[in-house]
Structures are given as structure tokens and as C-alpha cells.
């Protein structure tokens, strides 16, 4: 297990799913963990149970980003690990995508992530680590995910450029791209229970390891990339997909 004692870790979207699992792991590794989320009630509950600090903030707004940065860097505190995890996932075929559908996903998944990184940069410790949560659909094709896929592809481009620009400060920037993970996000798509069940069954059958991933498995990948064991790794995209991303290569 990695040791992050006395390291400050900020996780956006940390009140559920992958973000929460990652917060639990870093807390177990003795880090000083701060989680952010839009849902204040859920955030307060999870932060209290975990014994970490929670900041209610919306990554898609300037005000929300300034609040999370200001409150997590009080008294000139520096951030050692920044996990930009917050995002949304909504399905629609191209013919049904309207401006609000596209803008919402781009604003949270890409634009919000961009300005979160930009605003945190002066407060990152030399030799720190930035990790973006992307998705294998940034590079593979899946029907009904055009807006989501585009937002994650843009995020990947941001991460690669940031890896070059922040290298002089020894700040490493990496991407974790999950495949299907068993999180609440799958229950929030605009489908009926039967449709979700059918989609899940079809997706699972396409995964070489024949199962959905667990949030803790993504958390392990994030912790590795943030650790000293990954000290010579930057600009990489670590796929945690059970082999699903390989289907695009066959």
C-alpha cells in the first residue's frame, strides 16, 4: 500500500462512485483528503463518515471552482495530488442531441475540468500529481455517447498538453480511463430499468473479463499514478476496462 502521509489530496466529485472509493483509499493511506461535490447533503454525510473535509462546489461554474480552490488551499497550503474526477454521463443519439445536452456535458466534463486545473496550478506542490478521470469511449465508438465521448476526448488532449507544460515543475499529469464500472452513474441514464438491464447485459458480454469493474479497482489505479512508484510516468492513459478497450483494435 502506498504511503501518502502528510500529502494533501483533492478529489472533485468525491461523494459517490469512483471519487468516494478513491477518497477512502487515500484516507487509508494516511493522506489529508478533501472531497468536493455539488450535492451538499450527500457530501456532508460521506465526508463525516470518512473523516475528511468536504467542500460543496460545482465544477461547472467559475464560482464553484474558485470556492474549491480557495477553501482547499487556505493558509497557503499546497496540493500534492489533484484528482479531477467530477463528471456526468448522459446518452442520446446524434439526431437527438440539442444544445443543452451538449453544453451540459462539455461544461462539466471538459470546461469545468480545464478551469479546475488552471486555477489549481499555482497551488500544486513541486513534484505533485494531477490525474484526470476519462473514459475508454474517448477513443472507442459507442452508440448514443457522442457528447460524452467528445468531452472526454477533449479532456485527454488537455491532459497530454498539461503533462508537457507542467513537467518543468516535476508535476506529473496522467489519465485513468475506466470501462464499465459498477457505480450509481449507470442508474442515472435516461433509460427504463429494463433498458438499463439489457444494456448492462450487452456491455458485460463484450468485456473480455466478463464483468463490470469495481470503483475500488479504479481507485487503485489512481493511487498508483499518484505515488512515488509512478515517478517516471506522465502523459499516460491507464485503461481500467477489463479489456473492453481492446475490442476497438480487433
Automatic annotation (TrEMBL):
InterPro entries: KR_dom, NAD(P)-bd_dom_sf, Sc_DH/Rdtase_CS, SDR_DHRS6-like, SDR_fam. It is an enzyme of class 1 (oxidoreductase). Keywords: Oxidoreductase. Residues 7-184 form the Ketoreductase domain. The keyword Nucleotide-binding does not apply. It holds the Pfam family adh_short_C2. GO terms for molecular function: oxidoreductase activity. Its EC number is 1.1.1.-. Belongs to the short-chain dehydrogenases/reductases (SDR) family. PANTHER family: DIHYDROANTICAPSIN 7-DEHYDROGENASE. This is SDR family NAD(P)-dependent oxidoreductase. It comes from Mucilaginibacter litoreus.
